[in-house]
Amino acid sequence: MSAVTKAVIPVAGLGTRFLPVTKATPKEMLPIVDKPAIQYVVEEAVAAGLNDVLLVTGRAKRAVEDHFDENSELENALAQKGNQQMLDAVRGPVELANIHYVRQGVPRGLGHAVACAKQHVGDEPFAVLLGDDLIDDRDYVLPKMISVREKHGGSVVLLMPVPESEVHLYGCAAVRPTDDPQVVEIDDLIEKPAKGTAPSNLAVIGRYVLDPSVFQVLDATAPGQGGEVQLTDALRVLTKTDAIKGGGVRGVLFDGRRYDTGDKLSYLKAVVRLAAGRSDLGPEFREWLKSFTDSQEFSSPKN
Ligand code: UTP
Fold first, then answer.
1. Nearest partner of 50 among 58, 41, 61, judged by Cα
2. Residues contacting ligand 1 via CB (< 6 Å)
3. Which of 1, 101, 202, 213 is the most exposed place for a label (fewest CB within 10 A)?
């Protein structure tokens, strides 16, 4: 069975939940302290051994491409000033991985974005990491997902328990246990189930290891929820497809630190959590944060 060597990171979405900032700035470029969200996601792919990274970009996403390009003017200025620390910070994203790009001309949904990767990926299993979904580096789980794929074939999704009241916002899985307490077999997947109809509280979150047979299924997948081509709908077909044809979907259970940086509240939590854990900023920031929360001065004159 082929090894997983490629990562696909879709970043072509409109980011409507984070307007107005996302009108001209890609949400994947929003800073989490001093690095854009997308850099953390590429670093996670590389940490899992996936140096071949395909970014699925679209309109108004030029800043993402620029971030991973050289900026010789800036580098020369920093070199002249002898500012090695900032020079390393600027070179970091350039040297991180072999980054490739494909355009999704119209954002027709996550399933459609993944389908745009077909030519680059070819007939091999591959990982998908959502560009606005950040997993804390203390809780990386992609290597476990890859090992499940290597052991069983088929596709693997990441499942996180969410409160009953939120499950209708996600793709949701009907599952059966396996010998491995961290792994479940998936019998069914439903994108954004109507309230009260979810088969479990296990939500699909932004990491996948997919069998290449998903491309054929995506080609035949009609737009679903929200008029978008849903990856969950294609994976649902794969839960009902024979293993010999690339079917079978398993879930890895996750209860670590994860942030949806495309959601305002989750984004704020990510910034605070990561800033508080930094060795340079953390001590002073934590002290301020404590005195701020103790002070109860939360009312703000303007949103
Ligand atoms: P989201 O559903 O969170 O992105 O997709 P969105 O559509 O930009 O969000 P809202 O609801 O309008 O705020 C998850 C990931 O998939 C990408 C997004 O860029 C994000 O990283 N995506 C989504 C695409 O690349 N293409 C699409 O058509 C949709």
1. 41
2. 10-17, 28, 56, 104, 107-110, 112-113, 130-132, 262
3. 1
